Amino acid sequence: MSLHLSKREIKVLLLLLDLEDSVTTKDLSETFQVSVRTIKYDLENIREWFKDQNVELKTRRNKGIWLDIPDSERLTLKNEILEVERFETYPDQELRVNQIIFRLLLVNTPLTSQTIADELQVSRNTIISDLDRVEALIITYGLQLNRQSRLGFSIVGEESKIRLLMEYITQKEITEYDIYQIMSQFVQSDEQKKVREVSIGINTIFQKNYQVALKEMTNLIDHSLLNQFNYAEILSITLRVAIATSRMQLHHTVGGYKILSNQNVLEQKQELPFLLMLKVFSHYELPILADEYLYIYSDVFVANNQQDIVQLSEELIKDVSEKVNFPFYRDRQLFTNLFAHLSLRLTKKHLFINEYNPFVDDIKAKYPDLFIAIQEASQNDIGGSALLINDSFIAYIALHFLVAYEKNLHSINVVRIVYVCSTGLGVTSLIEQKILEEVSNVEIAGFASVLNATEAIEEKNPDLVLSIFPVETINRPFIKVNPLPTKSDIQAIQDEVNKILADTQSGKVPRLIPRREVKEKQGMEVESRDLLVKAYIVYEELLKAFGNQLNLEYKEAFLLHVMLMVHRITFEGQYENTGNVVKELLLSQQTLVEKIENIFAKNDLMVNQAEITALLNYIGEE
Questions:
Q1: Domain range for residue 574?
Q2: pTM reported for the whole predicted model
Q3: Which of 4, 261, 409, 444 is deepest in the core (most CB within 10 A)?
Q4: Could you tell me which residues come within 8 angstroms of residue 496 by beta carbon, excluding any fewer than 6 positions away?
Q5: For residue 386, pLDDT beyond 60
């Protein structure tokens, strides 16, 4: 049976299945950023779907909408929607536009509007209207919609831009359920491994190619390789291999036809992108081209590795503060976290432009001014990286800024929570502060990704597990939440917390870990992380200040000295000035001394003359 529901209606339906209590149409309208009238229209279709399943969607004035069915039936209905029928939904215009683009990019001849209409089962006039939207979208990627009289439509432009567009569409349409299904295959034992079909690029050659890439990836990857990547990188590599395969089958290459020369070296080093490329390309008898490997391996060539990350972090904070009229520049923690994020993001081994980011839609909808401000500031401040500034990149940056809105929170260590989501300092800080602000009597015991969720849950032994993915194989109380928790999510968390506390007080649930120990350990981890980042920032700035004067033979020792120096200053253990200050040396290097004092002052560190004297000993002889 087909689901005649839009993408939003499916999300509303899934939310109703997740909720045990009632929810009002007003709450739903706020959650999905649409009018109450629109929600009422959606509910009419949803009610019909439930009726087909012999389930009654209950409503009552002044109470709201709810389902009165057991958990087992809720899970059955969710699986039916997500696993079986989700891809038979009636496509809205946005989904149709994406499907049209994929069809145009994965054929060698133009397609007529009637052909596309027949394939998508809509009218020709609908497709004509959709093609205007197609043209508007692809122009932003530097591509053109070629209209040929009596022949049809095609998309033309640079191959690299075509592939970026294909990546954008696949990352846009992929769901949390897809991510969970894909990633769960990588952590299964060989006996359990079973490649489930993922309907990406449905009814095109890409769909089959992606399935082959996914199967080969599950055979290749083991825990030793798994530690090199997070799930977004694994997803990007798999998608890129499938995209490269599909385009090469149509005789479109991303560069020249030079064969990759160092294949033996890459195979010996067990480079995962190469191993997957080799398997899939061999399956389709495609040549292993050097430029194709560069495309699959990384986008690192678009990043400016010479950019001053300290200066960039300061400029982003200053510009965003001015654009949204909020004093982010006063928050040194924001600077520390942003510096750490950008340092990893712009210099990492595998840098993929279109990384999956489950927070994009929520942040764009709930914080549009901040999103636009960061987008504009990034485009101005990050040199030579225009392709890097996409929605995913901006959303991850926005998470760090959002943390600054929700400072100075104090948690009460009662119910311990493990949160399964994306990784990253900004993500974890924002989620932690959001939950601690709005849910009483909880603490965050830790965060985990899909790849290490089981191990993290066993290690942390939490009372409650929250996840943006539908994790089903855990023996703890579990709540699936949105990437940025909604009001309904917060209420569900609070209800479960209250239930756990009641069970604990009655003796039904034993406490296995003392609360105070966990809290103190968590605080130490955060403080030590921040101190290390600050010390490294000071080290980089001192390197620039010393310039050619630094004795390069002692560069590694200089790093260690600075790290320990920052530690001494932070914990009030500086060298004593008495007997440790060389006035003549300080006077002879007066300009450098002023730079050193400014660097430490800028990082909220008060340095004395004894410590500066010790630093100056690293100057080489002229």
A1: 519-616
A2: 0.58
A3: 444
A4: 464, 477, 479
A5: no
